[in-house]
Specification:
Layout: E1 8-12, H1 17-28, E2 32-37, H2 44-52, E3 57-61, H3 67-81, E4 86-89, H4 104-132, E5 135-140, H5 144-147, H6 153-173, E6 178-185, H7 191-194, H8 198-205, H9 216-227, E7 238-241
Parallel strand pairs: 1-2, 1-4, 2-3, 4-5, 5-6, 6-7
Helix pairs in contact: 1-9, 3-4, 4-6
């Protein structure tokens, strides 16, 4: 039997990169997928791949930083899927810059999507998860939220906030059988890292004991563990998937 047989999983930011890898990993393990992104066009490829794996999939549009949009998306998902077993809060952005030059707009945009978005989606599905007395929530944080990084104070603050939110929700939801954990990816080969110069990539690689960038699949495997029956007794934890950067 597959690990997530006949479960319903919501994955935000499912259109590409880590979110897409998580959605496909879950589908391969038997889950049906509500693929969420800013526009449904962004997730059509993911939805198609999930269906090729023989699972149901729904394309859902939501601005994760706006409460009304998130509530509407949650209502749509619950209406079409019937229930939800797993929530993966993956949607995130970067707007890098030194503190003295960072605009308030860039600060707000990153905090609103990365942190507020995680809060809003967790809140939107909390009632149904608490009522059914089961569920898994996995939040995608970052090693930058653990160690900080020059030029990324907004991103670091948002991901450190996700870690604090994860631990607090884990305590709130544990009595109802719901686990809440976080993954802290290191430098993963995605559209974000593809923008870096070779010189920047070489400098980053020197900081990684395993001497290479990670793949989206590496993160998806870790998320699958937290979502699976194998992690029944694990909650409030942060797992770094980073090639040893913050060991």
């Amino acid at each position: 039997m597959k690990q997530l047989e006949n479960q319903i999983a919501v994955v935000t930011g499912a259109g590409r990169g880590i979110g897409r890898a998580i959605a496909l990993k879950f589908a391969a393990q038997g889950a049906d997928i509500a693929a969420v992104d800013l526009k449904t066009d962004f997730v059509q490829e993911t939805v198609g791949e999930v269906r090729k794996l023989g699972r149901k999939a729904w394309a859902v549009a939501a601005n994760v930083s706006e409460a009304a949009s998130v509530e509407a998306a949650a209502e749509q998902i619950l209406k079409e899927a019937g229930h939800v077993d797993i929530l993966v809060n993956n949607a995130g952005i970067t707007k890098d810059g030194l503190v003295m030059r960072m605009s308030e707009a860039d600060w707000d945009a990153v905090l609103d999507i990365n942190l507020k978005g995680t809060f809003l989606f967790t809140k939107a599905f909390s009632r149904t998860l608490l009522k059914q007395k089961s569920g898994r929530i996995v939040n995608i944080a970052s090693v930058i939220g653990l160690i900080g990084n020059a030029g990324q104070c907004n991103y670091a603050a948002s991901k450190a906030g996700v870690i604090g939110l994860t631990k607090s929700c884990a305590r709130e939801f544990a009595s109802r059988g719901i686990t809440v954990n976080a993954i802290a990816p290191g430098f993963i080969q995605t559209a974000m890292t593809d923008k870096l110069s070779q010189e920047q990539k070489d400098a980053i690689t020197k900081q990684i004991p395993l001497a290479c960038l990670g793949q989206a699949e590496d993160v998806a495997e870790a998320v699958l563990f937290f979502a699976s029956p194998a992690a029944r007794y694990v909650t409030g934890q942060v797992l770094a998937v980073d090639g040893g950067m913050v060991m």
